[in-house]
Write a structure and sequence with these properties.
single chain; about 400 residues; alpha/beta; two-stranded antiparallel sheet; 6 strands; globular
Length: about 400
């Protein structure tokens, strides 16, 4: 069954020969007059970016990766990409190690972007991105993030915790706490703190928690909020210093957890106690986010959000094609569960960059980073953004 699905959706095995990677579809353009059309001279995009990803942030968290991949496509940046397109983590359950990238595709030129799931280690990230890097991350209300992780693979979590999430919450209300070890050694309690490099044994040590918050404050240039995605992307655009055309990515739909999980005030309070370290981290950076919005200016943020929304509408108008369906699929390493997506968009370069899922963009970037001759065509901005000229936009 898996082999048939791999054939159907063009999944690439881990040990596949590089020559067998399918080339991404490219629409060449006769004119090179628009070679710099995607960026006006006033924009000088950041070249070194580290994005620490967290679990329990579907769609919005993944969209940040798509933004960075799009930036890599269009400005000739090299991304840290695991060889296997079905794996998006490196080093778990240990912290990230720079030497994990020694055998990765495209490593001969060094790296500009790290956006894989990994546990934080500043020294190791800096070995690849050097001190000039801008580090970003996104947080979510820890209770909602934990529920999301439970709901992503309910059968697996039910076996691990001895009951579904509603049963777990009912037990917590009478003082029976869930087990504190991690599913697969990775997923579990205080996921944010653990991803930031804190050990499970230190969660009750408030001095170390405060030290971690101080470290994040001093190291990360932007801590975004899942619940305030549009404002977060507006701030990200300013940090990366890129145009709206380059950063606009449609935000996918997110189901309300209240539709799937029975959670009252007592249940939320019990989960907040179980996730107290993450709650403290989130509360601190939620306040910092509000301060940053005021510092940048609420009106400025609003204008940037409006520009991004207009660009998203233009992208949709230009690229949407219900008769041209592109499939993407992945087998998750933790569970072996196969997931697939169907994305309708036109077969032109810009629409491919804008419309593909993270998994397919991952595969495209591997091909591009392995094939330098292809790069000269594909990375030409007159190709990537030729549709703006073709459509008179």
């Amino acid at each position: 069954m898996k082999n048939k699905l791999r054939e159907k959706f063009n999944i690439v095995p881990k040990d596949i020969d590089s020559k067998e990677f399918p080339a991404p579809v490219v629409q060449e353009h006769k004119s090179r007059r628009y070679a710099q059309a995607y960026e006006r001279p006033r924009y000088h995009p950041r070249r070194k970016i580290g994005y620490l990803r967290h679990h329990g942030l579907p769609n919005n968290g993944e969209n940040i990766v798509r933004v960075l991949y799009k930036l890599a496509y269009c400005t000739d940046l090299t991304v840290v990409l695991p060889n296997d397109t079905s794996v998006f983590s490196m080093g778990y359950p240990n912290t990230f190690q720079a030497n994990l990238t020694e055998d990765l595709y495209g490593n001969t030129e060094g790296f500009d972007i790290i956006a894989v799931h990994a546990r934080w280690d500043l020294e190791e990230y800096n070995k690849l991105l050097v001190d000039e890097a801008k580090y970003i991350t996104m947080l979510r209300n820890p209770v909602d993030a934990f529920l999301e992780m439970c709901e992503e693979n309910p059968e697996v979590f039910t076996r691990f915790y001895g009951g579904d999430i509603n049963e777990i919450i009912s037990k917590m209300k009478i003082g029976i706490m869930p087990r504190k070890d991690r599913l697969g050694g990775i997923i579990g309690r205080n996921q944010f703190a653990w991803n930031f490099g804190m050990n499970d044994t230190d969660f009750e040590n408030m001095e170390k928690v405060d030290q971690l918050i101080d470290h994040i404050d001093k190291t990360f240039h932007l801590v975004m909020l899942y619940e305030r995605y549009n404002e977060s992307v507006a701030l990200l655009q300013k940090l990366l210093n890129v145009s709206t055309r380059l950063i606009a990515i449609n935000n996918g739909p997110v189901l309300s957890l209240s539709e799937r999980v029975s959670l009252d005030a007592d249940g939320r309070k019990a989960l907040e106690s179980f996730l107290s370290t993450d709650v403290k981290i989130y509360t601190h950076f939620k306040r910092k986010f509000e301060e940053l919005i005021k510092k940048v200016g609420e009106e400025e943020i609003r204008k940037t959000m409006e520009e991004q929304e207009k660009q998203n509408e233009l992208n949709y108008k230009t690229c949407y094609d219900p008769n041209n369906i592109h499939y993407s699929t992945i087998v998750t390493a933790e569970t072996g569960i196969e997931m697939s997506w169907a994305v309708p968009f036109k077969d032109v370069s810009y629409c491919r960059v804008h419309g593909l899922t993270e998994q397919s963009l991952h595969q495209d970037l591997i091909y591009i980073q392995m094939n330098k001759d292809f790069r000269n065509i594909y990375r030409d901005p007159s190709v990537i953004f030729s549709h703006f000229h073709d459509e008179g936009l």
